Structure formats: C-alpha cells, structure tokens
C-alpha cells in the first residue's frame, strides 16, 4: 500500500503527473542539491525533478518532505523506485544550500550514490518515486492513528478479549 500527501484536495480516480516547475525540487534553496542528484542520477532511475513521491507509511509523509494536509492511498503506475531520504539530508548537511557540482565532497558523492542505489540507513526515511499514479482513496491519518493505538487485551486463560482499555488491567500475552 502506498500513500501520497498533498496540500491540495484531489479527486478519487485522478491521475497524478509530474509538477516539474511547481514542486519543491524547483525551490531556490533546493536547486543546487537537486542539480547534484540529477547530475549523478543513473539513466535507469526516475528523476527526482519529475517524480511523484510516495511512502508506504502515512505517518512519515511530513518527515520526508511531503504535505500532510490531504493524504491519499495511491495505485502507482509503472516502475516503482525506492530510496532513503536520509542520504539526501546528509548531502544537504555536508554541502549547505548553495554550491556548484564541482564543489561536492567525496562524502557527498557517496551519499548521492547511496540514495540512487536504495541503500537503507538506520533511520529508514523511505520514499518511493514513480512517474505517475492514480488516487485510490482519501486516507484519514487521525482515524488510522486512533485505530492503531487501540489495544486489544486478551485473557490467556479464558481467551476473552476486550477493546475497552480504559478500565481494564493489561494482561500479558
């Protein structure tokens, strides 16, 4: 299951396509780093500048730079490519906002290589890039979090369970 965050209220069934000139990859403070990633992008990888970004965990949309005003369950179209945004952030820390490609350190180049080669960091800020996707459903993050936080306690002896955790002692499973 994949998710996409947007600041716009979109229609179910709508096909998402690249927003090359309006996405955050075109922001002035991102141009240097995006140019570096594009310069070292292997030919078989989807460009960050033209990608639709997805996650497999809606709770990290904002953490990986997406909007969480509206969250949608998505059906990706075509090739799905996975990268760990941790490496992108490490390049930003290493190089700052404004630099020329010739100024990239070997460390920054290695981080870029790790990003494109889907190397996972310990932080696992995983994003997926696709060229297009269709909105399947709107996803209510607050409802989902409420469901996930609901604990079901089972009495091992009787096999009974109770979803109401407010007045119930926790039984170890």
Question: Can you offer a commentary on this structure?
Answer:
- The chain is α+β, with helices and mostly antiparallel strands and 173 residues long.
- The chain has 2 domains: 2-139, no CATH class; 145-173, no CATH class.
- Helix content is 23%, strand content 23%.
- Strands 1-4-7-2 form a 4-stranded antiparallel sheet, with no helix packed on it. It has a 3-stranded antiparallel sheet with strand order 3-6-5. Strands 8-9 form a two-stranded antiparallel sheet.
- Strand 8 and strand 9 form a beta hairpin.
- The radius of gyration is 20 Å and the shape is elongated.
Q: What order do the helices and strands follow?
A: EEHEEEHHEEHEE
Strand arrangement in the largest pleated sheet: 1-4-7-2
| Oligomeric state of the chains in view | single chain
Form type? elongated
**DSSP helix count?**
4
What does the main sheet amount to?
4 strands, antiparallel
Query: What would the average pLDDT be, to the nearest integer?
Result: 81
What is the straight-line distance between the termini? 29 Å
Number of domains: 2
**Helix share, percent:** 10-25%
β-strand number: 9
Beta-strand fraction estimate: 15-25%
Low-pLDDT residue spans: 146-173
Derived from helix and strand composition plus strand pairing, the structural class reads: alpha+beta
Q: What is the C-alpha radius of gyration, as a whole number of Å?
A: 20 Å
């Amino acid at each position: 299951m994949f998710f996409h965050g947007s600041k716009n209220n979109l229609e179910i069934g709508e096909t998402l396509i690249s927003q090359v000139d309006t996405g955050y990859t075109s922001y002035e403070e991102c141009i240097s780093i995006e140019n570096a990633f594009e310069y070292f992008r292997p030919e078989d990888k989807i460009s960050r500048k033209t990608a639709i970004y997805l996650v497999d965990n809606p709770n990290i949309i904002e953490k990986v730079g997406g909007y969480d005003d509206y969250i949608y369950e998505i059906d990706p179209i075509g090739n799905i490519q996975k990268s760990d945004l941790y490496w992108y952030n490490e390049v930003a820390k290493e190089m700052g906002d404004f630099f020329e490609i010739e100024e990239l350190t070997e460390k920054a180049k290695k981080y870029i290589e790790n990003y494109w080669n889907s190397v996972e960091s310990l932080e696992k800020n995983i994003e997926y890039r696709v060229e297009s996707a269709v909105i399947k459903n709107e996803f209510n993050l607050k409802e989902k979090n409420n469901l996930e936080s609901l604990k079901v306690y089972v009495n091992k002896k009787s096999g009974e369970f109770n979803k109401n955790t407010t007045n119930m002692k926790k039984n170890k499973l």
